């Protein structure tokens, strides 16, 4: 059995066949999905994934959607964290890859959400694209209850710093490409207890969906992603599955209670 620690099942790409996507995931042995929100406007849709499919949810304001966030959305998030018992605050963080995103506003939003995570005693799911060191800076400042560094692609030194702060590192589709040498080396060499598995579906398609044309990613691809990790580490798939499930539960303690 596996946990997809990061899946946007609420995304519009799944509107036509979401029930079938959920069914395929369970048939493939993916026992749980963690669905992080991206904007306040989608909180209800994210929460609907829990009601309809039994998913775990996280609530947060994603840095890429900066233009959609308003100051009052932080109060809305605060209220939602109190009323809806998510497993984490997320997806939050910093993105210095997408052009045109105001860095100072991103930082202010990130810090405000880290403060909320502290107040609600929740872990966080962090977006760290081209921003690992900056994210680490603010995690050291606010000292939240750990969480997951989503789609990790940093250095070994950065990985070790996240681990010191109580974080697990998310590995998924990028690890399946033979050219992703740094990510594959980290997946092979990091302590197994550092790693959680994710699809980030419908995004970050694994190598076998790359096309052309690129096909949509979905949670049912997670067993093949787990098999890649097992091969890189010279382990059995069952051992990798058991370890990454335990790691996800350690990163998100409320999820462990849901799954028990």
From TrEMBL:
Recorded family membership: Belongs to the metallo-dependent hydrolases superfamily. TatD-type hydrolase family.
Cell division is among the record's keywords: no
InterPro entries: DNase_TatD-rel_CS, Metal_Hydrolase, TatD-like
The protein's name: TatD related DNase
Lineage: Bacteria, Pseudomonadati, Pseudomonadota, Betaproteobacteria, Neisseriales
Keywords: Hydrolase
PANTHER family: D-AMINOACYL-TRNA DEACYLASE, HYDROLASE
The keyword Transmembrane helix is assigned to this record: no
Gene3D superfamilies: Metal-dependent hydrolases
């Amino acid at each position: 059995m596996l946990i997809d620690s990061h899946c946007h099942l609420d995304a519009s790409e799944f509107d036509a066949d979401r029930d079938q996507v959920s069914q395929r995931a369970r048939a493939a042995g993916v026992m749980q999905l963690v669905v992080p929100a991206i904007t306040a406007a989608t909180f209800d849709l994210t929460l609907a994934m829990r009601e309809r499919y039994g998913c775990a949810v996280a609530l947060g304001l994603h840095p890429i959607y900066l233009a959609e966030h308003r100051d009052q959305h932080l109060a809305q998030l605060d209220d939602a964290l109190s009323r809806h018992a998510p497993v984490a605050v997320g997806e939050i963080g910093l993105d210095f890859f997408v052009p045109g995103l105001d860095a100072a506003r991103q930082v202010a939003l990130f810090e405000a959400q880290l403060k909320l995570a502290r107040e609600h005693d929740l872990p966080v799911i962090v977006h760290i694209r081209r921003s690992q060191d900056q994210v680490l800076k603010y995690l050291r400042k606010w000292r939240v209850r750990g969480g997951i560094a989503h789609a990790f692609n940093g250095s070994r030194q950065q990985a070790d710093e996240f681990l010191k702060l109580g974080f697990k590192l998310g590995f998924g589709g990028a690890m399946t490409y033979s050219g992703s040498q740094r990510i594959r080396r980290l997946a092979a060499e990091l302590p197994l207890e550092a790693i959680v598995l994710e699809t980030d579906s419908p995004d970050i398609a694994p190598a076998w969906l790359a096309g052309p044309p690129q096909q949509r990613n979905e949670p049912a691809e997670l067993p093949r992603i787990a098999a890649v990790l097992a091969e890189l580490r010279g382990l059995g798939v069952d051992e990798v599955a058991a370890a990454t499930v335990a790691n996800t539960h350690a990163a998100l303690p409320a999820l462990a209670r849901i799954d028990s």
